[in-house]
């Protein structure tokens, strides 16, 4: 399970920024009167539906009589990958609403690790860097030295491999329960994991801004930052 979690993490943090902006754009176009805080709430709701729904579907399929151990294992691998990918996309979308675009993979990794670990992850970053817990997300993504990012990632990864592997391992077994219990366990377990991520994002970024940003603070690979015009709904995002 630790290797599975590590592999899923490495793939999840490479989602293109254009995809993130396009998704936030779509949410805003469907809800043209929504404030930034309301858009974040919609992103949270959508994310929870994805991770709960995926967990339930895997639980229903894995508990079917015709499904063998190899197939059940493959379904679990797929579920873990989906959870990490959805969590990365969600946390980066929240960052986008806050006016931050991160193309630096180590910083994306820090953000994903922090939010998946929830409020405890935010506290760990704050304790390791002497950064106030509130707004850890912006500090991590835009200002923290690359050397510190590497150190923090090592600490967070160790914690993640201990906690998340246990959680996903327990869910994998629970989803094999018969008579529909596997689907129920998958839904409730996925939602519980998702709520931890939502709490982590709230703690890392704090309240959404009062208005949508007119400029994005873009952090390029290597950690250098610059400002770019923020993509507006219905326009092509800046790569």
What is the typical, i.e. mean, pLDDT?
78
Number of helices: 9
Q: What is the CA–CA distance across the termini?
A: 35 Å
SSE class: mainly alpha
Count of strand segments: 3
- Strand fraction equals 5-15%
Largest sheet: 3 strands, mixed
- Enumerate the strands of the largest sheet in spatial order, edge to edge or round the barrel: 1-2-3
Please provide the ordered H/E string of secondary-structure elements.
HHHHEHHHHHEE
What radius of gyration results from the CA coordinates?
A: 18 Å
The share of residues in helices is 55-70%
* Uncertain segments: 64-75, 170-185
Shape: globular
List the helices and strands and how they pair.
Layout: H1 2-12, H2 17-30, H3 36-62, H4 69-97, E1 100-102, H5 105-116, H6 119-129, H7 136-142, H8 146-174, H9 181-205, E2 215-219, E3 225-229
Parallel strand pairs: 1-2
Antiparallel strand pairs: 2-3
Salient structural properties:
239 residues, mainly alpha, three-stranded mixed beta sheet, globular
Task: Give the structure's gist in a few sentences.
This protein is mainly alpha-helical. Helix content is 69%, strand content 5%.
Describe the overall structure.
There is one protein chain. The chain has 9 helices and 3 strands; from the N terminus they run ααααβαααααββ. It is mainly alpha-helical and 239 residues long. It has a 3-stranded mixed sheet. Helix 8 (146-174) packs antiparallel against helix 9 (181-205). The protein is globular and about 40 Å long.
């Amino acid at each position: 399970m630790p290797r599975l979690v590590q592999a899923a993490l490495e793939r999840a943090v490479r989602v293109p920024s254009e995809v993130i902006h396009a998704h936030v754009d779509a949410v805003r176009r469907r809800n043209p009167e929504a404030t930034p805080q309301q858009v974040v709430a919609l992103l949270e709701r959508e994310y929870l539906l994805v991770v709960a729904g995926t967990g339930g579907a895997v639980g229903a399929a894995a508990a079917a009589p015709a499904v063998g151990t190899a197939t059940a294992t493959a379904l679990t691998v797929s579920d873990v990958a989906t959870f990490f990918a959805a969590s990365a996309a969600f946390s980066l979308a929240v960052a986008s609403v806050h006016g931050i675009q991160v193309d630096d993979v180590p910083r994306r990794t820090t953000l994903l690790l922090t939010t998946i670990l929830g409020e405890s992850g935010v506290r760990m970053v704050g304790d390791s860097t002497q950064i106030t817990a509130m707004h850890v997300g912006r500090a991590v993504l835009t200002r923290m030295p690359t050397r510190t990012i590497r150190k923090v990632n090592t600490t967070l990864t160790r914690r993640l491999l201990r906690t998340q592997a246990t959680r996903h391992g327990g869910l994998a077994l629970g989803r094999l329960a018969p008579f529909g219990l596997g689907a129920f366990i998958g839904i409730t377990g996925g939602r519980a994991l998702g709520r931890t991520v939502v709490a982590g994002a709230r703690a890392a970024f704090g309240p959404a801004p009062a208005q949508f940003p007119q400029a994005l603070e873009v952090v390029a690979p290597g950690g250098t930052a610059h400002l770019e015009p923020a993509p507006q709904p219905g326009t092509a995002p800046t790569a």
